[in-house]
Amino acid sequence: MSSGDETRKLQHQKMSSDLDTLQLPISGHREKLINAVKKYPILIVTGETGSGKTTQLPQYLHQAGFAKHGIIGVTQPRRVAAITVAQRVSEEMNCQLGRGVGYQVRFDDCTSEDTVIKYMTDGCLMREILADSKLSRYSVVILDEAHERSLNTDILFGLLKQFFHRKCHGKRKATLKVVVMSATLEEKKLSEFFDSCPVYVIPGRTYPVSTVFCNLIGPEDKESSAYVKDVVKVVIDLHTNEPAGDILVFLTGQIEIEKACDLLYQKAEAIDYNYDMQDRSLEGLLILPLYGSMPTEQQRKIFQPAPPGLRKCVVATNIAATSLTVNGIRYVVDSGFVKQLSYNSRVSMHILEVVPISKSEALQRAGRAGRTSSGKCFCIYSKEFWKKCMPEFTVPEIRRTSLTSVILTLKCLEIHDVIRFPYVDKPEERFILEALKQLYQCDAIDRRGQVTTLGKLMIEFPLPPSLTRALIKAASFGHESILLPLAAMLSVENVFIRPGHPDKQQAAILKHQELATKVGSSNDFATLLHIFEECKASVSPSSWCRDYFIHWRALKSAFSVETQLQDILTRLKNNKDFPVEQFSGSRSELLRRCLCSGYFMNVARRSAGKVFCTMDGHGSVVHIHPSSTLFEQEFQLDWIIFHEVIVTSKVYVRIVCPIRYEWVKDLLPKLHEIDVYDLSNVARHEMAEEEVVKLEIPERKDSADSQEGAWGKLQKRNDDRSIM
Ligand code: CDP
Ligand code: MG
Description:
Layout: H1 4-16, H2 30-39, E1 42-47, H3 53-63, E2 71-76, H4 79-92, E3 101-105, E4 108-110, E5 117-121, H5 122-131, E6 138-143, H6 151-165, H7 170-175, E7 177-182, H8 187-193, E8 199-202, E9 209-217, H9 227-241, E10 246-250, H10 254-270, H11 273-276, E11 284-290, H12 296-303, E12 310-316, E13 329-334, E14 337-344, E15 349-356, H13 359-367, E16 375-381, H14 383-389, H15 404-412, H16 429-441, H17 453-458, H18 465-476, H19 484-491, H20 502-518, H21 524-537, H22 541-548, H23 552-573, H24 587-599, E17 603-608, E18 611-614, E19 621-624, E20 639-647, E21 651-659, H25 661-665, H26 668-673, H27 676-696, H28 710-722
Parallel strand pairs: 1-7, 1-8, 2-5, 2-6, 3-5, 6-7, 9-16, 10-12, 10-13, 11-12, 13-16, 19-21
Antiparallel strand pairs: 3-4, 14-15, 17-18, 17-20, 18-19, 20-21
Bound molecules: cytidine-5'-diphosphate and magnesium ion.
């Protein structure tokens, strides 16, 4: 923890900083905001994107002395935002990143003893709550980007609400301050959720934005994948016909963005500037990608003004909608699509897919063009598409995604009644039950819904339960070295480079094939493992990556992730409860068997031709993705497991390996032995018990932390609810 001296030093440095933040809409509200935070335990602050909430408010609170009793923590739903903003604020405060101002995201902790303002992902704060439910290190917790309604932020809302409702924590409740920050979207709903807590509105300045529908995508193109080309066409038209002003393009993900940037580069090169350009003051286009896993040096350029004569064109994911404000944008080009995790009823699975954005999201995107002057938004879609295909509002993540990790977290926090947890928007009960079922199948909870010893080990890993289960299996055999690199490779961005240029594309494909064949039998998991090992063992890992068209940056992160997972595992292996098993067999079998123990819900069997059928009870039809080494080898296969599902024109499974039926034979019944009805009985059972508690044990027992088990906890929960 920093001393008072450190606090003063930072304050002084702030004054000598040359970064101009006085012009931001928030700057006139400093004193009032500080007083409001002093006065209320929970405060909501809203204001237009770019008004200075994220970068300034933590500094104001720091200057007002809030950091004397603990850290000022700020959560972000996106890792890039956490890193970029921390960087910016450390510059504004003139201190080294990681000292006074730091950040922490999954697998990357850039904080120190001196850190007083800490930006982090909401997932990181969730993990901290597991170790310290009172968040005693913090004086202020700021939940930023609340309107995004990310899964973890939503759960944090519920946990903090419960925290303030508890009868215990008396002293702590008086000192912890919570600020919820959001764009002007959800403040009413959130205020109601937090017992009508006050809302501080920072008046914004916005300019009118006119919308142009380019009609390249209509209602029939809902699953179109041509939007990258359409977007490029619109950008080039705009660049040649519209007066100076920077462009912000909204696309769906890293691969699409890289493709668009390649195409834009080619097209922009080909423009004959003497004839085509309307605006003679412009000579060219400065093309800058912006997506989640980008290197930080590159991100800086986004915020710097373009050199004279150049028009800046930032090609971004949704991150630029509210998380990061790029100044000087006059034109927005909206693809109308977003990549999001959602439940796909066609395959009864949660998958990452490209879907039309909501109308409120479209408005938010367009608004980015009207920050400093009036602007224009070019939508590649038609008005019809807007009307028919776009929902009014974005569905909060909690209502469309897999809940396994959060439900396990809640269970570990001894919140047993996950159905009646205070959700801002309650997820559908079947999703909660589905998560309980999967946790049961992974042996993380027992039939009564209680966390098992294994579940307590699993929660320590910042990985999805399936991967954690496989890792613990390998470790129980004493062979974690086979799963650790793989878990790391599956946790970083896509490692394969797909060059834009056709000649290079072919060369890359050949090199990737070479890597796959080195493994011997076809198995995408083994290929990833091989890439990790061979790269690490090479004399120059970065040139090895260049030769094989592999992202060196991704590999570098994988190396670091592996070390961190290894540290967690080493710590847990000292635990007497850590399982120990014997295995004798080949390395290839060992790998696949461990994978089976985590991924057995992702088992499919070839039914006919190239068609596979999942074994999870839904019997969905899936195909092997063309990027897999098993693609076009389907006829030789019988049973497979897969890492993930992608839906485009077909339902594809990606990262696949062949397995033998006998390896999953004993596990598969688990998929069916407990079905949703059974678990809903468990849930109903829980509720029935609570009723009993209410009726039969009238006197209150303050024994939530004692060994009484579920009864004591249920009693306590009822108390909590009675004052809600
Ligand atoms: O959180 P909110 O949207 O209200 O605003 P902010 O993120 O605090 O941004 C305030 C200003 O700082 C904007 O004008 C941003 O463009 C600028 N900023 C920047 O120049 N570089 C960064 N890395 C982050 C913010
Ligand atoms: Mg912000």
